[in-house]
């Protein structure tokens, strides 16, 4: 992302999700990171066993990390993705089960579903935090009751994506279906994220009242108004 929130032109209320939201919630680059190493792992595993799969996955993840760094991606995000693949490889080598390469993702999806659910219950929906950070609003969006309600409802779309992945991945993992896990991961990465983006935006649009200025312009209460009302009441 380039520029600050003040540099960007204000979007109309009916505009789609900002491009930065797509990137933060798992855009096409994130899809390459999520699918490239598992596909390489399956190919290497079929060709040369567990060590072949681990080597292929780590080499692919390293290549993707170098490509992302050259494109100017944040080093921290790149290193986190590479570290996740390395940990997954170590788990598989430790247990000796190729399907355990996907165990880290199972745990990650379960933790994500829990985190998003807790954030909704605490009235700090993660979708609002992500969009607010992307638009430079910090926590100002929370003072807009309509926007807070919309983000809370839309966040359930993301909880559903993690639960759907778990419903598909867990039986395949228990059965040791490595190829099935790879195919499921490819099918449930970018296509599912795209569906979650579209559905969550639809929920937000339907949750906001008519005339609301949109995500870029939270309607916050005027702190001066209550004081003036008390003064008028005294007079």
TrEMBL record:
Keyword tags: Membrane, Transmembrane, Transmembrane helix
Transmembrane segments: 39-65, 77-93, 113-135, 156-176, 182-204
Signal peptide extent: none
Highest taxon of the lineage: Bacteria
Record field: compositional bias (Low complexity): 9-18
Disordered, as annotated region: 1-30, 214-235
InterPro entries referenced in this protein's UniProt entry, alphabetically: UCP010219
Name by which UniProt lists this protein: DUF3159 domain-containing protein
Species of origin: Micromonospora siamensis
């Amino acid at each position: 992302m380039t520029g600050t929130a003040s540099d960007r032109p204000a979007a109309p209320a009916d505009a789609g999700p900002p491009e930065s939201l797509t990137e933060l919630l798992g855009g096409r680059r994130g899809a390459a990171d999520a699918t490239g190493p598992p596909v390489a792992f399956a190919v290497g595993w079929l060709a040369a066993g567990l060590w072949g799969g681990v080597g292929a996955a780590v080499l692919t993840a390293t290549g993707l990390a170098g490509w992302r760094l050259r494109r100017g991606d944040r080093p921290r995000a790149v290193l986190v993705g590479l570290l996740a693949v390395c940990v997954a490889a170590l788990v598989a080598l430790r247990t000796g089960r190729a399907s355990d390469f996907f165990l880290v993702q199972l745990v990650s999806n379960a933790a994500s579903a829990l985190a998003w659910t807790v954030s909704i219950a605490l009235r700090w929906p993660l979708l609002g935090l992500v969009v607010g950070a992307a638009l430079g609003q910090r926590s100002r969006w929370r003072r807009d009751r309509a926007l807070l309600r919309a983000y809370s409802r839309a966040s359930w779309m993301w909880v559903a994506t993690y639960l759907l992945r778990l419903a598909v991945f867990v039986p395949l993992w228990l059965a040791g279906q490595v190829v099935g896990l790879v195919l499921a991961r490819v099918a449930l990465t970018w296509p599912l994220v795209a569906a979650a983006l579209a559905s969550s935006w639809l929920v937000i649009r339907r949750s906001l009242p008519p005339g609301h200025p949109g995500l870029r312009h939270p309607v916050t209460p005027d702190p001066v108004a209550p004081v003036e009302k008390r003064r008028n009441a005294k007079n």
